[in-house]
Design a protein that fits this description.
binds 1,4-dihydronicotinamide adenine dinucleotide; 13 helices; 12 strands
């Protein structure tokens, strides 16, 4: 069995080679992303294996289908880059619903601590033997209110971490969980009352630009915004305006709305065309990491093992527990009815 593996990076090839070899799956690794120009690289393959910034839109889906491909194995949780609706009846799309939620939640806290304790500034200073403390005053997290949007796997781990710091936690979720013990409030209340806001919900049409100028207008002055979920949850222009007006105290971004042609690549010798990103990065109170929250050894192994498991299950049964289904949605009843549904 052969899968074309797009957007291959040195850090994910070893785990996929290992698990693939064990289960008789050959991955053909391509550095390029899957898009309108590159889909034909998957010729003669049984499926494609893609990541967050590959394009699986209607055009690519139709082309893959014409080529006889029936499976798209996402090696990530989020699937906003896939037209699941268009794929229905053509391609089976499966993802990795859970892999070390600790990786992402711990990265969110790492960004927060770096930002508010000015570690990014201090590191550069001491590298230059500058031991001055001017401008490095931070604030305690203990006693502060953190608003967590999305209380699924990652949001709940982040809540546990925040509890350890003695923070007050407010939560918002479209589908609140009764057994979480979290204090759910409306999104508006969360915006109004939080010192720190961390996003852990998926990107959907409903959540796109959830943080826009209106939302920022409701927030406390000096609010710290953390986004390790998906870039387009935040209107980047509105965030920039909020930072320039001093309303937003700091932003910690592992994702960015227009990241797909930028993140994961080395542009250090180039002119940055994206003015909004360049301006955000130039701010002393903005920290940007390049969608690296998932990047721990544990998560990489989880991802490879689950993706290979998904591919095997699909080849044996013709469907897969971790499949995304447009008709039923991603629910338990959907999973039970998967074969009939597709
Ligand atoms: P999950 O599915 O366990 O939790 C998502 C939560 O968001 C659920 O509780 C759901 O009810 C809630 N939700 C859905 N629609 C909502 C809405 N309109 N408003 C508020 N809440 C809503 O997902 P998980 O594993 O916790 O991942 C969360 C997100 O983290 C993913 O969607 C993905 O975008 C992102 N992610 C980022 C990574 C990175 O490397 N930066 C790695 C892995 C995931």
């Amino acid at each position: 069995m052969k899968y074309a593996f797009f957007d291959a990076k040195p850090y994910d090839i070893p785990s996929f080679e290992k698990y693939g070899r064990e289960k008789g799956i050959e991955f053909k690794f391509f550095e390029t992303k899957l898009n309108h120009d590159t889909y034909s690289l998957a010729t003669d393959c049984d499926g494609v294996c893609v990541f967050v910034n590959d394009t699986v839109d209607a055009f690519v889906i139709d082309k893959l289908y014409e080529m006889g491909i029936r499976a798209v194995a996402l090696r990530c949780a989020g699937y906003n880059n896939v037209d699941v609706r268009h794929a229905f009846g053509k391609l089976h799309i499966f993802h990795v619903p859970a892999y070390s939620p600790y990786a992402v939640a711990e990265h969110a806290m790492a960004l927060l601590l770096t930002s508010i304790r000015r570690i990014h500034k201090a590191y550069i200073r001491t590298k230059d033997f500058n031991f001055s403390l001017s401008g490095l005053t931070g604030f305690d997290l203990h006693g502060k209110t953190v608003g967590i949007v999305g209380t699924g796997r990652i949001g709940r781990v982040f809540a546990d971490i925040c509890k350890g710091f003695g923070m007050n936690i407010l939560a918002y979720d479209k589908f609140p969980s009764e057994d979480s013990g979290l204090n759910y409030v409306s999104l508006g209340e969360l915006f109004e009352q939080s010192d720190i806001i961390s996003l852990h919900c998926p990107l959907t049409e409903e959540t796109r630009h959830m943080i826009d100028a209106d939302a920022i207008g409701k927030m406390k002055k000096g609010v710290v915004i953390i986004n390790t979920s998906r870039g387009a949850l935040i209107d980047a222009e509105a965030l920039l305006a909020g930072i320039k007006s001093r309303k937003v105290g700091a932003a910690c971004l592992d994702v960015y709305e227009e990241e797909s042609d930028i993140f994961f690549e080395d542009f250090s010798g180039h002119i940055m065309d994206d003015d909004t990103l360049a301006r955000l990065i130039s701010m002393p109170n903005v920290i940007v990491t390049s969608h690296q929250a998932f990047l721990t050894e544990e998560a990489l192994n989880n991802i490879a093992e689950t993706t290979v498991g998904n591919i095997l299950e699909f080849s044996e049964k013709g469907y897969c527990e971790n499949e995304l289904c447009y008709r039923c949605g991603k629910t338990e009843s959907c999973k039970a009815a998967r074969k009939k549904c597709f």
